[in-house]
Each structure stands twice: as C-alpha cells, then as structure tokens.
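User: Show me a protein chain along with its predicted structure.
Assistant: Here is one chain, sequence first, then structure tokens.
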Amino acid sequence: MRHRSSKSQCRKGYTVVELIVAFTIMSILATAALPLARVTIQREREIELRRALREMRDAIDKYKMASDLNMIEKKLDTEGYPADLQTLVDGVQLMNTVDKKIKFLRRIPKDPMMGNTDWGLRSYQDDPDSTSFGGQNVFDVFTKNQGTALDGTKYSDW
C-alpha cells in the first residue's frame, strides 16, 4: 500500500483564514453600501414629495382660475380658493349646469415623509410662513415633517 505525502493530497474546502478574509471584504463592501442606500431612499422620497406638492398646488391654482373665470361658484371669504383639499377631489358644480361637476384631483396624495394624507395647510389670510391653518380656504400646502432635505433646506419650507 502506498502512502501519499501531505503535499500530493488534494485540498478540499477553504481554510479558516480564507473564510475570515472573504467575510472581512464582504463586511467592508456592505458597510460602504448602506449609506448610499439610505441616501437613495431619501432622495426618492424627496422627489415624491415635490411631485405631490406640485400636483396639489396645480389643482389649487386650477380651482382658483375656474373661480376667477366664474365657471364655479365663489363662496364668501374664500377669495376663490377651495375650502379644503377634499373639495378638489369631490369636485364642484359648474355654473349654469345641472349635472356637470369639475374635479381637480383624483385623490389627495400621500405625504411620503409622514406616511399619511395629513398635509399642513395655509389660507390666503395666513402669513406666508405660518404653520397654523386659519381655516378660511386652502391657498397652499406643505409637509408637516420638520426634517432637513439633502440640499440643506427644511421640508416644511418647500
């Protein structure tokens, strides 16, 4: 019977040192990828916030334009702005028609920063930087999130 020398035997598997080196390299790569993933997620939420704000502000502007053109009834003390965001979704009766409504939003968008549809509102009579809603009409919307964006501005100032 022949004995093989230790040098001629085939190696199978990995040594502990090889496993430790591979694990260390994978850990370093994972640690580097986490901050990048967090920034990417935050950037996507910021893009969605800007889109939602633009959509609602456009709807408010269209409502105001329809009011100024006497297409819809202008209620007292509203300055031609909607009473609330739900009015933009429910729609309003066109003047001089019986069954025609005009809708400005399909739904109230979800605030990606807060995870709900509870937006901050400003009326035409409120101060431009007011965080409390006067209740007369909806002139502007903002997020209630007090966090800071990637560009250094506050989300609530957008």
